[in-house]
Backbone:
């Protein structure tokens, strides 16, 4: 529909929307990052703090993002801009965050895709070499890039088809599949002798391991895993029909995300302890320790391994689709582009960033900015700075710059629903979250080894803010 404004797309069904939103939330954050953060931060004590962050901060912000999106019927930039031009920068920061996350996320997605194949081509035959194989694979110049490209192509094909026919349809098939695959792995893991040590680790808190950094990690993780702080859920909310119950949908999405994170823990830790492997292997946990588990399983190992990496790929795919959609929706809403060219263009730019990230594991490992390579640069800039500040900006915007009655009307579908916790939610958004994130952000800037990078991130935000009206 060239020229005139096409009718806004909507989700076809509630189930479809829930699968798409849960698909965005459930991703590498749950299966790749959550288990290793738990492993590094002392098991269940970390999980408890993480759950508190999810319940108080995460859930409230998700309700706020859905509300802003549906109220304005616009993606991140337009949503802010249509209310107040001084705030356009907060939306643009979201689009920028989408580019940066998509500058490393598809690289890991590509690894996962590759590991499906490697599961049956000899990786598991030499358990002692698994770590070296991973190191050699990710630092090679061409092979991981080819997988990243393939992974990116899957995203493009789906997002180019549109909200309902692409994202929703794919998520409605992929998410239930992911669930079944995880259940299979969990049953296998729990059936192993010695698995209970892993359960103890997951569910019995060791408070001695908790520090300020633990809280920072838990808060950052709660934003990342719920796809918050960069307009992703604003964009998904903008396709939501007016008769949908926002709070109850948010509770479902948050519950599903938390469930899958716990399931990922259950899929890994019992088996890990059963085979005497250490849980604190860091980011390599999924690609090094998990294949080692399957190598110990004998004949069924390769099959289990394919299932696991298929699950990981599916989880990643439904998330990166949402990140791509944030930029595509911006180009459609604000730049009047058609969906197909917008998708290809955006994915093209993201692929360039991914190339830098992938090469930073090998050929470009000498090239650093603020002491880190491209992969870590994009990761730290978003996870440690942009998402938290993006969430804080959203809370300030909603709490202080939107009309309370408008919010109440939007959340209660013009009074047809009751939302008993409205006042509680409103005060959390208006007062608790801005203050809490400010404190955590300051702690983070003091704490973090890459202080230059922190300041660089803040400078980007300041510049965007100064030019907000021109954006
Ligand atoms: N939530 C996804 C994960 O856990 C990643 C993701 C998708 C994301 N969209 C996002 C993270 C928006 C931050 C913001 O893997």
Residues:
């Amino acid at each position: 529909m060239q020229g005139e404004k096409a009718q806004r797309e909507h989700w076809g069904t509630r189930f479809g929307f829930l699968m798409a939103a849960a698909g965005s939330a459930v991703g590498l954050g749950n299966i790749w990052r959550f288990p290793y953060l738990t492993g590094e931060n002392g098991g269940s004590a970390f999980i408890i703090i993480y759950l508190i962050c999810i319940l108080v901060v995460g859930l409230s912000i998700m309700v706020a993002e859905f509300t802003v999106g549906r109220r304005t019927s616009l993606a991140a930039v337009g949503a802010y801009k249509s209310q107040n031009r001084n705030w356009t920068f907060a939306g643009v920061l979201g689009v920028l965050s989408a580019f940066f996350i998509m500058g490393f996320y598809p690289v890991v997605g590509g690894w996962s895709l590759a590991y499906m194949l490697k599961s049956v081509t000899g990786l598991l035959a030499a358990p002692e070499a698994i770590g070296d194989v991973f190191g050699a694979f990710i630092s090679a110049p061409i092979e991981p890039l080819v997988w990243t490209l393939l992974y990116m192509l899957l995203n493009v094909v789906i997002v180019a088809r549109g909200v309902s026919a692409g994202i929703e349809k794919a998520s409605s098939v992929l998410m239930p599949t992911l669930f079944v695959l995880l259940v299979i792995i969990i049953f296998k893991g729990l059936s192993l002798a010695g698995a209970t040590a892993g359960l103890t680790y997951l569910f019995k808190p060791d408070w001695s391991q908790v520090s300020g950094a633990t809280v920072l990690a838990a808060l950052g993780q709660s934003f990342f895993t719920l796809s918050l702080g960069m307009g992703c859920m604003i964009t998904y909310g903008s396709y939501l029909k007016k008769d949908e119950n926002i709070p109850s949908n948010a509770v479902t999405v948050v519950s599903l995300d938390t469930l899958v994170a716990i399931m990922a823990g259950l899929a890994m830790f019992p088996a890990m302890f059963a085979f005497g492997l250490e849980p604190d292997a860091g980011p390599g946990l999924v690609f090094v320790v998990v294949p080692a588990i399957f190598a110990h399983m004998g004949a069924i190992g390769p099959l289990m391994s394919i299932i696991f990496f298929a699950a990981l790929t599916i989880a990643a795919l439904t998330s990166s689709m949402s990140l791509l959609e944030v930029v595509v929706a911006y180009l459609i809403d604000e730049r009047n582009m058609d969906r197909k060219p917008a998708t290809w263009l955006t994915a093209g730019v993201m692929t360039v960033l991914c190339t830098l990230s992938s090469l930073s594991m090998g050929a470009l490992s000498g090239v650093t900015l603020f002491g880190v390579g491209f992969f870590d640069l994009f990761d730290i800039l978003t996870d440690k700075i942009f998402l938290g500040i993006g969430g804080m900006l959203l809370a300030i915007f909603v709490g202080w710059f939107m009309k309370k009655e408008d919010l109440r009307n939007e959340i209660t579908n013009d009074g047809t629903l009751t939302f008993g916790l409205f006042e509680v939610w409103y005060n959390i958004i208006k007062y608790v979250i801005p203050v809490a994130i400010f404190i955590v952000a300051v702690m983070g800037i003091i704490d973090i080894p890459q202080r230059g990078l922190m300041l660089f991130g803040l400078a980007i935000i300041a510049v965007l803010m100064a030019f907000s009206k021109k954006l």
About this structure: The mean pLDDT is 93. The first helix runs from residue 14 to 25.
